[in-house]
UniProtKB/TrEMBL annotation:
One Pfam match: polyprenyl_synt
InterPro entries: Isoprenoid_synthase_dom_sf, Polyprenyl_synt, Polyprenyl_synt_CS
EC number: 2.5.1.1, 2.5.1.10, 2.5.1.29
The protein's name: Geranylgeranyl diphosphate synthase type II
Amino acid sequence: MHTIFELQQLIEKAIREVEYPANPGKLYEPISYIMRLGGKRIRPVLLLLSSELFNHEASKAMEAALAIETFHNFTLIHDDIMDNAPLRRGQDTVHIKWGVNNAILSGDVMMVEANKHLTRLDAAVLKNALHCFNATAQGVCEGQQLDMEFEQRTDVSIREYINMIRLKTAVLVAGAMKLGAIVAGATEEDANYLYDFGENFGIAFQLQDDILDVFGDPAKFGKQVGGDIISNKQTFLLLKLKELAKGEDLSLLESQYSNTDYPAKIEAITTLYNQYGIRDLAITKMKHSLDIAFSALDKVSAAPAKKDELLQLAHSLIEREH
């Protein structure tokens, strides 16, 4: 078994060794650029950890890990275009650096590159691996579509929101873990347990992100605190407040949507969150998803000691500093 750090190093080395065609330069340079921007490589790490649960050498699952990371970065290129985001990991986004049309096309080619990585897997697991990958990719796209649609709606339910983050965020974590198990030759039952772990852990991770966006320490969280409030993003916290607030409180909340005095807006809505105990309700919801996740992991038929690195990574991600 490798440590998380060792797996991150293996992934970085594998990414650097991927050779893309030299021409056309404006098609392939953006791919090398975004793939080498860094990040924690959480999804490929989870894939390799899942594979190693079943006595499978990490290097044998590396093509699957590269497929997942390539697909993930493809979605980032297109998400940044949709969000008109200027920066990604502190650097210019691909569409800022090369233009929107080039960014779209480079993203398209990344989907092809991801499939090319998968086709290098052993023929015995290839069909199941492709099925898992394609279902995962489709789910992520569905989640992004729902997220965009929710921006135009005022009647989004908490159930709908949880389903959206399941698709947009959690399905890729789940799919990566199931793919790692498939490549390692795990039983269908074990692969599905890992999928259940990843899906519910991914939901918990996003709920924690929602909480930190309001209550986190900006120096430790790495983002502007209150960004979701400023943009009227329909997170679990806002939806729960809309569900519980009555009378003058509900009127106050609704009056804040158009408020452009952002510090005052953040203060007003945060005060309402505190008044209605929204943070504690969100934490309870997050912990419920975590309980389901860890229960699924317990059922995976691998020695408990082999799950240590996976558990360590999961706890480190969910216990990010407030």
